[in-house]
Amino acid sequence: MLRILGMGASLLALALAVQPAGAAEPEQCQAVRMAEPGWNDLAFTTGVASVLFDALGYKADSSLLGINVIYESLKNKDLDVFLGYWDPAMVTYYEPYKKEGSVDDVRVNLTGAKYTFAVPTYVWEAGVKDFADLHKFADKFGKKMYGIEPGSNQLMMDAIADPSLDLKGWEVVESSEAGMLSEVGYQIKEKRFIVFQGWAPHPMNRMYDFKYLTGGDKFYGPNLGAATVTTQVRKGYLAECPNVGQLLKNLAFDVDFENAGMGYLINDGMKPEEAGLKAIKENPGRLDAWLAGVTTFDGKPGLEAVKQKLGL
Predict the structure, then answer these.
(1) Which part of the chain has CATH 3.40.190.10?
(2) Distance CA 245, CA 267 (A)
(3) What beta strand segments (E) does 153-207 contain?
(4) End-to-end CA distance of the chain
(5) pLDDT digits (tens, 9 = 90+) for 186-230
(6) Short-list 258, 263, 246, CA closest to 56
(7) pTM of the model
(8) Domain topology for 114-225
């Protein structure tokens, strides 16, 4: 009996000796299911993550969904990762899931962002400098404000519903980020009044001459909707897939990096993964921090594998 136990211990030691330096992730972790709501900043950062996951041997997939659907999908474990919780702009969407504990925060991946109403500079100079000024020029605006995808404009609707702003009868024109910006460009060219969702990071800040409105603290938070963006996952995901979790804990961006990357999408017509790959190749030094302590899906050193896969 002792001899058998001894042989078993020797075999175990041999098996451990020939294993790779890192342990492979569980098989169910290979597919990484992500989503974003059609915002170019989130499309870009999700594209960056997809490139990294694929280079590490995972199979990343991203869906285009409304914010409310994203949270329901995380709750129901139909999605794994969301890189785009804008705080405070998405507080009302996230609050129920936060209370019940069905979605976990990973880390803040962007600071210095902002998000609130915006108008062309000539409209601002005409006297529309604050949310409270909008009703005074209702006829010029046609009682319309321009938003993005349906499901992403609740704060605009909340502003309209607020009696203190006297916006009764106004409507939110919902389309898409690209559709809204196309309308902004046209109205600016014609020197017409338009109020729309503005935010940074985004190339719109270079493309158009506009100002952010004050007075929206109740809806978007202070300092012109100063915001952070947080990575979130479905409950328990970090424990189930710790290597994916390590990458998500490392992955962070900045406004300049995202402005450039979003420009690849909007101005150059690239797909998110193409833009992500170009941005990574232009900033290879970021990989050291992003891939610290991260392995490939099968347990090999991650940084070396990604550089080899991407030709860096």
Answers:
(1) 29-113+228-310
(2) 32
(3) 171-173, 196-200
(4) 55
(5) 999 999 999 999 999 998 988 899 999 999 999 998 999 898 999
(6) 246
(7) 0.74
(8) D-Maltodextrin-Binding Protein; domain 2 (3.40.190)
